[in-house]
Amino acid sequence: MGIETGDDAAVYRLTDELALVQTTDFFPSIVDDPYHFGAIAVANAVSDVYAMGGTPLVGLNLVGFPIDLPRQILTEILMGGYDKAQEAGLLIVGGHTVDDKEPKYGLAVTGLVRPGAHITNSNAQSGDILVLTKPIGSGIITTAARDDRANADILAKAVEVMETLNSGASSAMCHVGVNACTDVTGFGLMGHLKSMMVASKTRAKLYSSKVPFLEGAYELAEQGVIPGGTHRNFQSLRDAVVWQSEISATTQIMLSDAQTSGGLLISTPAAKLDTLLEELARHGVTTTAVIGEVDDGQSGTIQVFP
Q: What's the pLDDT tens digit per position in 221-234?
């Protein structure tokens, strides 16, 4: 596969029956607890493989760490990452560390997929239904937590969601057979949906009331707790999104919020929706929100309704 559609990971065919899926992601700490930071970073890094319908195989640690910070912090970051990798069935086989001004962590990940069985972001079809598998708002909550404006329960619930692997959602969609998928990360729900529509040459209709928000995120956004990345996401949508007049400014920001380790955004044929929802539930996916549909309107655009 080439880079034309901006897909989640690269797929390199080795044989008619075997292909590699390769991706990488790392970022500065978004939570104070180093163990949870490590776990979130690994869940986020392997998500691109799951979005392509692949199975993570091996990973390489990518670490930036200040030389004057206690080494115990780095140990806890790596242990959080190791434990999450174990849960994913991923073997961490090495990595590289550099001196940096602030801690950064992530992985380069290699997975496996059968050629032709991989799922791209570029095959959404008119008539498809859009399904989201995690609530959004993690960018707003983690930004609030850094400013001591998010209570412990709200942060803990957001951390739990970010640490949750997308493996179950991936297995479910692969079992059913869907048209397209992407994971929701730094460009936010709207940004990643826009990319899917551009790549697929289709249009989306999104129903904002159907999109699940993390507890406390909307209220924090109303208070003006908005990450810089979320602002940039919102501005980048200016020419692609038609917001109905009933959509509040806060809701527009929420839908643009930059996510870490978000869920899968799946485009499935309408005839397979019920089966997909059943499979997602069977695989332990607790959020299965039907948030919109795909049609053949102006390519790469999104209409947002209440």
A: 999 999 999 999 99
Q: Show Cβ contacts of residue 180 under 8 Å, excluding neighbours closer than 6 positions.
A: 119, 120, 121, 122, 123, 124, 125, 128, 196, 200, 266, 267
pTM: 0.96
Closest among 279, 260, 256 to 268, alpha carbons compared: 279
The C-alpha angle with vertex 65 and arms to 59 and 66, in degrees rounded to 5, equals 175
Q: Checking phi first, is residue 11 left (phi over 0); if not, alpha (psi -120 to 50) or beta?
A: beta
- Which parts of the chain sit beneath pLDDT 70? 1-6
Write down all domains in the chain, each with its CATH number in brackets. Answer: 10-113 (3.30.1330.10), 129-305 (3.90.650.10)
pLDDT digits (tens, 9 = 90+) for 91-107: 999 999 999 999 999 99
Query: In which order are the strands placed within the sheet that holds 104-113?
Result: 10-15, 18-28, 104-113, 55-65, 91-99
Query: How far apart, in whole angstroms, are the C-alpha atoms of residue 221 and residue 230?
Result: 11
Distance, in Å, from the CA atom of 8 to the CA atom of 46, rounded to the nearest integer, reads: 10
